[in-house]
Write the structure tokens for this entry.
Amino acid sequence: MRSLRVGLAQINTTVGDLDGNVAKIVHWLDEARRLGVDLVAFHELAITGYPPEDLLLRPRFVRDNLEALQEVVAASRGITAVVGFVDHPAGRGELDDDIYNAAAIVHDGRLVAVYHKQHLPNYGVFDEERYFQAGRLSPVFTVAGVAVGVSICEDIWYPGDPTRSQALAGAQVIVNINGSPYHRAKRLFREQMLATRASDYGVAVCYVNQVGGQDELVFDGGSMILDAQGRLLARAAMFQEELLVCDLNVNEVVRMRLHDPRRRRERRQAELQVPTYHLSGEPFQRQKPPVEPRVAPAPDGEAEVYQALVLGTRDYVTKTGFRQALVAMSGGIDSSLVACIAADALGAENVTGVSMPSRYSSEGSIRDAKTLAQNLGIRFLVIPIEPAHQAYLDMLAPAFAGTEPGVAEENIQARIRGNIIMALSNKFGALVLTCGNKSELATGYATLYGDMAGGFAVIKDVPKTLVYRLARYRNSLSPVIPEEVFVKPPSAELKPGQVDQDTLPPYDILDGILEAYVEQEKGIEEIVALGYDYETVARVLRMVDRNEYKRRQAPPGIKITPRAFGRDWRLPIAHRYQAY
């Protein structure tokens, strides 16, 4: 039986940490070699970290990444590896000044060839045409007697080249290296797409994805291997580092092709630009025990989202150099969820909850915040804001004379809290995690320089209805959030008897409208056709459009939906268009 032992190194790299990334690559190279792997693959731009954004415009950064690649090449004795990096052919002595999103094919201490990504995504969170030139060639390599094609992320999402050309040129295995960010339910869509590519072209597909948080993005891993019929053979765990190893039976590919006249006809008609490279006819290690393929269970629903939020929070805090975090705990559902995520991400000993009650804070809310802090085992501070609040009212009384109390007086409280928690941040070097959710941020139901003050918005992309479900999920692991938090009406508690529904539609209605407008880009007529009241829809859409100025000033936060208020949302602040 002709087989290829493939390793997919699902690792957590950091943008710009070239030394750290190379050290991690070399470590997993050594582990793959120990396990008798013939070909090990690392994720897209593994050497630089992904996405490097405007670091790519710095010549020194590109040059340093090429030097770092040489360290990986030197460490590849006795193994073949595919490693993502930034290629600058001129920096390697060639006549080409462009830079490319590239995969290095290294073999036994040599850089054998370089593949350049052909399909450059330029939508949503992706902006690759800003930096890279597109590649044109689709090479095939013979590794341990098996023909292998290499591609990068977006290349395999499109039917056709390079996968088609590589398969027609004889590739039996496609290795696709990725920096594919997470959003809800994306895993199933990926698996379906990869199964289609594998079965359409009669190739086994080895898909390696990075794992970890990078600014607003979370990469979920979930690397996988599918056979030539599109069946899942092996899958790595989500949200953690892992080396996935699998023995691929290539004889199955050969048998399928012998019975496929369609492929022979296509090959006769195709004009292929496919360079071929013979690396090895036999594996480095001929005698090795078989590896049992492993399909890791995948979380779904709230478990998947919660793990993404924990990983994204942990990596943002640690990769930006912080060790501790602060959470303003009001006793409401949002801050309760954020406190849980922070404790799970960083450890209870590294999280401080801060209660800042006012004259309008209920005893129940104060008690709920304290109970949650005790259940989580985090440090808990109580700093009443009444002295500062009254001082502000007295100071502003002459200027406010003759006017009715309103939003200005309410927001003073939120801004006092923002000042207090930022003072604690400055004093103790802890990162402030804000607690605003997507429903609030969409409609502007938040106070600039108040509850929006902080360094990272953990649930910025989580609709309010999902906040409740995530909190229930967390309580299913251990019941830390008091039941009262779930049943009391949500309220900012900035005036007597206040509840969110004084200003907003019920959240189950609001979130449905927001999903249709923000994520699905439906117009008002289409949203009303879903069963919503016209006036309610128009009011929500006006709130969304009028509050872009607030969203521009919000901290970064974790993307968990197909369209978040971040890199993939670019609405002008000053505009007069309205379609409602």
Notes: The two ends are 65 Å apart (CA to CA). The chain has a mean pLDDT of 94. The chain is about 35% helix and 20% strand.
